[in-house]
Each structure stands twice: as structure tokens, then as C-alpha cells.
Amino acid sequence: MADARLLGKRVLRRVLPAPVAEGLLRLRAQAYWWNRRRLKPRNDARVVRALLASGKPIWLELASWTRPEQVGWTFSDLGGGGDLQLDLTRPLPFPDNSVARIYSSHVLEHFSYPSPMLDLLRECHRILRPGGEFSIAVPDARLFLDGYHDPAAFRASALCTEDVGLNFKSPIDFVNFIAYLGGEHKHLFDSDNLPLILQEAGFSQARVRGFDPSVDLAQRRHESVYAIASK
Length: 231
Known about the structure:
8 helices; six-stranded mixed sheet; disordered N terminus
């Protein structure tokens, strides 16, 4: 498929004037990504029915492309890179008490508190089986606040790795980085408030946990705070 797309580009550029060819290629790219990101609830419903019919425990990871090394997991990605294409601001397409495990890595900070953050967490609580596990990783804002107080000890090259337009001429930009991330971040977390927010959403036994190599991304370990809770 990739070879066919490449051949199509070459043909267009060969037979059409450059401005026309480039315009058509831009339109084709826009159409491709529109279709890729377009929600397909019928497909999601079919996948969910198959998961329920299998009789196997359902392990659901939120907002992640498929990770082939994570055998047995079902992945949801709004951009179409997973098994399900879920808008996490909407109800999750699972029945009550049907999912055994839910995992989320660096997702919750993109949701405003209290809504839609608590709405999503309550949906996760709803679909979990009694005793089901909700495991989560989020950026540890305390690292960046420590950097504000002690900039000489702050590892900016390891922690401020995305270009969001900041020049870091002042230590407050370490806080700006994690608080806003160019408009992507909506909420700050540390080891104190993360379990409390999980409890507010209805989870029990919410607590901070350590890095879990069976699910957590090694490249996020240095910047994350982890928690686990149950229904």
C-alpha cells in the first residue's frame, strides 16, 4: 500500500504542473487523515462484541497506538492506531462490570478537572468488574516545581523534551512547560493528588505504586508518577 501511494505521487508530479500536483497531494493527505481519525462506532461495537464473546478477561489501554509487545491488551486510539477508536470525552462502549484491567499512560493530564476528567474516570469505574484494576501513569509535576526552586539541579534536557515555543530563560518556564505543554496539558499531578482524584471518581484502595515494567513505558519512567486503584 505504501509503495502504491509513493508511485501515485511520482505519477502526479510527472504529469501535472508542480503547483497543481502539490495541491492535489495535500488534498489527498487531508482526506486520508480525515478518514483515519473519523469515529467509526460500528467498528468499535463489533470489536467490543467480539471481546465480550471471547470469554477472556478484557485488558484495555486508553489513548495508545497498538503496542505489539503487550500481548492480550486492547488498545484505543482516537487517531485510528489501535483496536478501538474512542473519543474519551464520550461514554465508553462497554457494558457495566465487563473489563478486568484498564491502563492509562500520560493521558489524564490532557483533561480538565473536574470535567471531563472525572467523567472519564467514572466511566472507567463503571466498566470495570468488581475487583478490577485501574493503573495509571501521569507526568510528575513536582519534578518541575523542584526545578523552579533549584534550577541548577533540574535536568531540563531530560524533562523538557518537546518544542513548545519556550526559551527557558527563567526557571518559571520549567513550570510553564509541564503546566501547559503548548496548550495540550490541562491539569498538574503529583503523588498526593493523583490517588485523591481516583478516590473522588469512586475507586477504592487508590495508592501510589512503583514503575511496572509489564505495562509502563521505560522512556517515561524518569518523569512519571504512578498509581493503582480498584473497583
